[in-house]
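Run log // design_07
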């Protein structure tokens, strides 16, 4: 079987991978080949949002994004959003609001929120409801809404917020 090479930038690092099947979901390349475990598998149907990453700044569900479409793209996973020393404003807001319960879905929510705030820096509750459609089985939605508003404030106070 022939292999294909695909090159992209992930978390500001250039990567070239070889695969036999370009239809392999990007999620599995991120988790199994690149060993970035923060992006989670939830449903495999792009419905729950646990696998949300950024591709060229847009929130994308990695479980349904064929890796062959990642060629030449700039990808950001939760590992590339901020650092423990300098968390992204969304990550800091999540910490401040003590959002997670089990935490499994939270990387996807954080990535979806960061993408939202890049488009709508001061979202209303309606903006949040319309754009943050991920699923949390622990039902931490109330705390997430508070954290999203807090992240908006933190991001507006940051001179150069990390852009994904």
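design_07 sequence
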């Amino acid at each position: 079987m022939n292999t294909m090479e695909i090159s992209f930038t992930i978390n500001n690092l250039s990567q070239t991978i070889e695969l036999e099947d370009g239809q392999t979901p990007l999620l599995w390349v991120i988790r199994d080949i690149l060993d970035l475990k923060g992006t989670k598998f939830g449903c495999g149907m792009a419905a729950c949002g646990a696998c949300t990453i950024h591709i060229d700044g847009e929130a994308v569900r990695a479980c349904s994004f064929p890796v062959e479409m990642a060629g030449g793209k700039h990808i950001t996973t939760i590992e590339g959003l901020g650092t423990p020393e300098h968390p992204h404003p969304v990550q800091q807001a999540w910490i401040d609001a003590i959002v997670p319960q089990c935490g499994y879905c939270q990387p996807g929510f954080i990535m979806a929120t960061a993408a939202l705030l890049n488009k709508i820096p001061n979202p209303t509750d309606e903006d949040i409801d319309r754009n943050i459609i991920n699923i949390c089985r622990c039902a931490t939605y109330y705390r997430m809404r508070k954290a999203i508003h807090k992240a908006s404030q933190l991001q507006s106070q940051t001179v150069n917020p990390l852009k994904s």
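The chain has a mean pLDDT of 94.
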